[in-house]
Each structure stands twice: as C-alpha cells, then as structure tokens.
META domain protein
Amino acid sequence: MKKIFILIGFFSMFVVNCFILSAAQTVHLNGSSWQLSRIRQNGLNLEIPRNTKITVSFSGNKISGFSGINRYNGTYRVRNNTTLSTDISTTLMGGSEELMNFEMAFLDILQSSPKINYNKGTLTLRNSNGDTLSFNKSSNSNNQSDENSLSRLTKELSGTDWKLINMNGKEVRNAGITISFSGNKINGNSGINSYFSDYIITAGNITIGTVGSTEMAGSDSLMKTERQYIELLQNAKKIELVNKTTLVLTTNRGKTLTFEKL
C-alpha cells in the first residue's frame, strides 16, 4: 500500500509540473515584445537591414510586429509547450528588393512552426531546417511609449494637407508640390502629376510603399524637380512634426523634404 501511495504521489507531482511548465510557457510569451537580433537561413547568417527594427509582440492569443516593410498581425498558439504555430496576414506595401527578400525570409521562418527556446532576455525560434530567428526582449515601457507616439503622430497627420517649401536645402515653395495623409494612404501633387502610395509610421520612422502617379509631361525643369521629389519621398525613413505646422521627412543619407501645413 505504501508503494502505491508513493507512485501516486510521483504521478501527481509529474502532472502538476507539466501543467506549470505549460502555463509558464504561455504566460511568458503573453504580453512580451521582442526585437530581432539575428536571422539564419539555409546555413547562412542574413544581414538585418540598417536602421530597420524587426519586431514581434504577443498579447493574449494575438501576434503582431514589423517585418521590414510591412506590419503583420494574426493569431498564435504554443503547441506541446515547444512549438509556435501562427496564422498571419500582412499589409501589402512594396519596397526595395533587398528589404522584400529579407522580409520574406523572416516571415517564412516565423510561420514554419519553429521550436521555442527562451529565457528572461532572449527568444529563439528554430525550425526543422535549422533556420533561426533570435530576438532580444524589448522594454515594455519603451514599447508602450512607441505605441503612444505612433498613435499620436498618426492621428495628428490624418486628414491634413501640406505644401513642400524646401527640398534638401533648395527653396521650392512655388513648385506646387503637396502631400496629404488619409488613414495609411498618402497622395498629392508632385509638380506635374498626381501621385499616391501607402505608408506606415513606427516610432518616428516612416516606410513609404511604391509610389504610383499619373503620366503627364511638363517642362524639363519641372520634370527634374518632380523626379527629385519622388525619389526623396520614396526613400524617406524619418518623420518629424515640428510645432504642428512643419513636417520634415529625412532619408538615410540625411536629405530632407520640408513641408508647411496648409
């Protein structure tokens, strides 16, 4: 009889420990946010694009983040306390070939049912092919600040119209170039043609999708100014709202577009 009680005791402890492990796994992911620090695919380490913050966040059964060009979101679950299963959709913005290839690699691994390995400060997702995503934990306070900043800036810009007054140090107030924000869309006049695109703002960074436009012609000087504007707009990476009346977009090379609110 004593042996039976001992066996029952060991079995009960085993069941309780398994339950605790499962709860700890789920709770640890829930409410956490991570920034990509390393990606390995097909035996090679891929370079994370400069000035690009690739993220993943978990909240309840929801997963979301930024994958290089687009934002993604969906649902997730942890299977057998070891495997991440996701169902993800993304926005549909375009970018450079380099960024698009990187984004595809990141999302492919994230959705390949990778095994989970984590501790207090790092999260590693590794699939059956050995492809790996490694993350460092983000500060919750910083993440909250970023989200608040994103919300404030997006709300302030939505429904506003702006006129370009300076293009990388050159006065262009009379060029008739404008930009308007509506939801996640931008549109305006680039001097001769009307243009349009999608955009995403994340904590002071802006990613603008492929810019489309009408195809009207004009004088050589106007067309040159228009080409320069579209190129700088397409490559803008930073966005800053100054005194609510001045908007500045800056490329990675420090070239600027300065707008005045209409």
Observations:
- The first helix runs from residue 2 to 29.
- Helices lie at 2-29, 97-110, 140-157, 220-234.
